[in-house]
Design brief:
This protein has about 775 residues and is mainly alpha-helical. It has 32 helices and eleven strands.
Length: about 775
Amino acid sequence: MSNLPLEEQLRKERNEIWSRFALASKNNSESAQKICLEWSHTADHLLKTAFHHCFSGQKVALFALGKLGSLELNLSSDVDVLLVAESENEVSLSALRKFQKLLTERTFQGFVFRVDFDLRPGGKQGPLIPTLDQFKDYYGNYGETWERLAFVRLRAICGDSTVENEVLSFSKKFSFRKHLDFTLLEDLKTLRSKIQSHYWARTTSEVIDLKLGIGGIRDVELFAHALQVIHGGKDPGLQVRGTTKALDLLSQKQLLPSDEAQFLNSHYWNLRSIENYVQALNDEQTHLINTQEEHPEFILQALKTLPSQMKRCDQIVKGLLGEAPQDISLEEELKKLGLAENDIQDLWQEILGQEVLSRNKNRDELARKAFLVAFLETLREQKGDIRRGLLLLKDFIHGTRAKASFFSMLLREKELLQELAWLFGHSPYLSRILCNRPELLDSFVYRMQDKLSDDLGSLLEELAEKKLLSEVINGSQYLEDKNLPILVKNLTSTADLVVENLLRALKRDHPSDIQVLALGKWGGEELGFRSDLDFIFVVPAEPTENDFKVAKRFITRLTEPHRGGNIYSIDMRLRPSGKAGPIVIPRKDLEDYLLKEASGWERQAYLKARYIGEGETSPFQSYIHRGLTDADLLELEKIRTQLVVPSASNLKYSEGGLVDVELAAQAFVLFHKITPKNSNTTSFFAAMGAEGSVLQQNYDRLRQIEQMLQLVASESLVELQSNHESFQALALALQIAPDELQLEVSRLIDGNITLLKELDPRRQPH
């Protein structure tokens, strides 16, 4: 630069660079994306120069918003900026006036930029240089949806680093909420409608509004930013500023079909190219192009397809925003369902009485009514228990504190609404999980969780959520497909993952070689709903102080209450010497105990031993050659008779029930000194030959029924009572008549008893 006054230097540099980019826009020698990026860098440079001249030494920071914030500035756009001061002491209105004059004053040389300060707390009515406290107070308490979207593109240009960091950190929390928030779509629908109604007349058969027309630049930006704000709290990777980058990420993360993402990106930059062209003609901030005037060939070609592209863009945007809900008569819908009068008066009125928490009550009350009607209709279509579904819905609404965001999300996410109605109408167990932890709906939408935290406190909450989420997801699927092998495999995998991560975290503070040896259903990879974790701690040599610390902390962390209950209940009674035995056992001592001292029932239990996180499945089978003595068999038979109950309808403890069959299969393997292929009940049945195959079929069906009962009953049950509401719900879930279900269970148990009289060594004379 020369020795010209700063204002003249800035105008001269601006004009030279602008002219170069304007020429490139008019002759199509550079892409719009490249021109916008380089022009944005030029704007940054000029703004920095002006800022440092005016605010030198002051604790103030300068931020860009809008297209400058995303480095997509068009040639004759305003620059949207925000100034924030650390405190009132740093606010200098004289410096601000100097800054504004330097940039905006027009002379024979022109001007530097039109500067827009309106995107500040309180807009035109707010302080021109808000303090950090004013910034946080306004957006923390009064910030609106459009401002959340605007802050997606907030970017620090220069100034005090402390102010920069505070503003950027707060704005991310303001824009990107941890939990999914679909209420903003309703606000956007209103905003978009206002824009279109205000500017619709600008688009005619001859004139196209590139920016504010239907399917124009603003529509693409609103669409991309809306999806970012909705999902960016759960996935920080979506917190980017550029439109192309946002659309690419939304496609990669399967939040937007790839063909739509590619189209919107191409359409967006086509619009921006035409926009730069019309602004380059006279350095005017215009977004209108007259299709009847003379234009270069590349513009004429672009204009041929532009109307159809804008129409397609409009359809995509409307696909996200949907139609506004209409006011509906809930009373009429209730009459259609035939609810009892007392239910309508008491239960339903209680649901309606929970006032929606919202600043826009009229809009969100419509959304809530529409959701309730859709929920009722879905319950009816799915043949769920309507009264029970409404009881659970009441608790769920109470759990969500009647937040408008939940109603909007559920009304929009039809599949999620259907799954929620399915759970509430069919499974009190899973529904209670969601009533206690409604925020799990976020992860239920994604079918995944975020990366686990390194902080132990956060990790524990995440592991508790992972376990609950696994039960909700797998339970919902099981209600539909009744696939027992997939269910137990997934529930077991979740337990393994939870334990591995917890153990790894504890070992970071207390280095240890301690291992968890899973037993029972967990060891056999057969975990079901409401299952305890049976296990012991094993170490390679004599336990150290750290080993005991890890073990005790592991037990405490796994069983202490979290939101929605503890992570898992545990059972450690299978350690040598029972409850009185040490909680950490050297591996060699355990092997010697099983080989030389363990009673028959203990050796049975360790057939299902499995180290968590290790490749071994049956680490303690060397004792199998001991077999079972007559004394062992007498002891096992005594245990059996103590366990079984006289009721033939007890799925678990009846003679011929689940426990009787499991223990019989284990006794068979030990008695015949057979080494099973794996540490699970299926392998034990396989060792029993053809009869074992029949037992396997009977057992699997009983277990399938038992797991379904856990889902449809309000409490943990193993007894089938024909006069109990859970029995009717069970028959409905299994799609079988109640009397047929009773007969089937009786046949299965009787068939097991017949087979076990021949196969079970405990029942044989000794």
